Amino acid sequence: MPRTRIPLPEPLASGAFTVRSAQALGVSLDRLKAPTLRAPFHTVRMDDGPLDPVRLAAAFALRQGPDQAISHTTALVLWGAPLPARVEQQEAIHVSSIGPSRPRTRSTIPHQLDPDRTTITRLGELSLTDPATSWVLSAPLLGLDDLVAAGDFLVTGTHPFDAVPPLSTHAELSAATDAMAGARGIRRAREALGLVRYGPLSRRETQLRLMFWRGGLPEPELNFRVHAPGGRFIHMLDLAHPAFRVGTEYESLLHQSPEKFRRDIRKQQELAAIGWSTHRLTSDEVDPRLRTPASRAALARIAADLRSRGWSG
Predict the structure, then answer these.
(1) 230 in helix, strand or coil?
(2) Mutual angle of helices 203-214 and 144-156, in 10-degree steps
(3) CA dist list (Å): 225 to 241, 242, 247, 257
(4) 187 to each of 132, 191, 223, 299, how far by Cα in Å?
(5) What are the chain's domains?
(6) What are the residue ranges of helices labelled H in 64-162?
(7) 233-241 and 221-227 strand pairing
(8) 3-class secondary structure, 55
(9) What is the pLDDT of residues 152-188, one digit of tens each?
(10) Distance between CA 222 and CA 277 in Å, rounded?
(11) Residue, of 267 and 257, whose pLDDT is higher
(12) What's residue 1's pLDDT?
């Protein structure tokens, strides 16, 4: 019969822990070699759940050296920036040494940073590059549009919704870009910096904005609040051209509940009553590079609407 595996003590049942802390609780070395435990780093164990940057970073915090910092796209993930799935699910983390040698250990992608050009801060138990530095360091690892979306998040956060200050500012991104002059990806960082805007509340909203830009439409207002003539708030449009009273909304899966659908219809009717035209785009119609027929058709509809309302483009 298979041997019954002794359960781990409750403090070690989930997440990461050090071999030393486990032994202090009476766990044997044989138990620490069980296939149900991962060894992401030397002297660190964790449960066998899926690996991702957040879990790996939490494990790395248990053995992080004083001159080491989580950096690049891993730091952006920890700051909450929206990134492609390949980054958010990566089974290795970027770790930089602020010193003479690169960190070399399993499950890490090592880098070396100049302390005079790098800003390090803390997030919980972790030492990591600050949001602006993380963004610039990620430039060679991300496509232009993904870098813009991350930048939009850093300078916006949830501020248009709840007035909570964002993690960074456009000026801080610019200063970090200047500090990294000559680094890999700096040309892409400068190009992205020119496209970063305050306002988008999702990666899709950034993609929709870039689609408008590449399609030659006038630059929209982002998360624009529409009020009735008496001042009553009606709705916050994802993208809006107030001069022409044309709004565009991205419809995600969050909009699919019957009650949400009915509420959106009522808001659309209220907007129409005060002269607004609204376009509701689904995921297949949003392509920032306008490579799909659906995205080009959606852009053409919005452009035609703008022209019918006085746009001369």
Answers:
(1) coil
(2) 120
(3) 11, 10, 11, 23
(4) 16, 6, 29, 29
(5) 13-49 (no CATH), 55-193 (no CATH), 203-308 (3.40.960)
(6) 72-79, 85-88, 131-137, 144-156, 159-162
(7) antiparallel
(8) helix
(9) 999 999 998 888 899 999 999 999 999 999 999 999 9
(10) 16
(11) 267
(12) 39
Burial profile 256-295: b = 16 or more Cβ within 10 angstroms, e = fewer: eeeeeeeebeebbeebeeeebbbbebeeebbbbeeeeeeb
Q: CA 173: distance to chain centroid?
A: 15
| Pair type for strands 16-18 and 44-47 | antiparallel
Task: Report how far apart, in Å, the C-alpha atoms of 173 and of each of 81, 144, 169 are.
Answer: 14, 15, 6
10 Å CB burial of residue 220 (0-12, 13-18, 19+) is buried
Q: Which residue has the tokens 């949001």?
A: 131
241-265 confidence digits (pLDDT tens):
999 999 999 988 665 778 877 888 8
Q: Tokens at residue 312, please?
A: 């001369």
Name the band, by pLDDT with cuts 50, 70 and 90, for residue 106: confident
DSSP 8-class letter at 258: H
What mean pLDDT is predicted for residues 113-142? 96
Tokens of 186: 């700096």
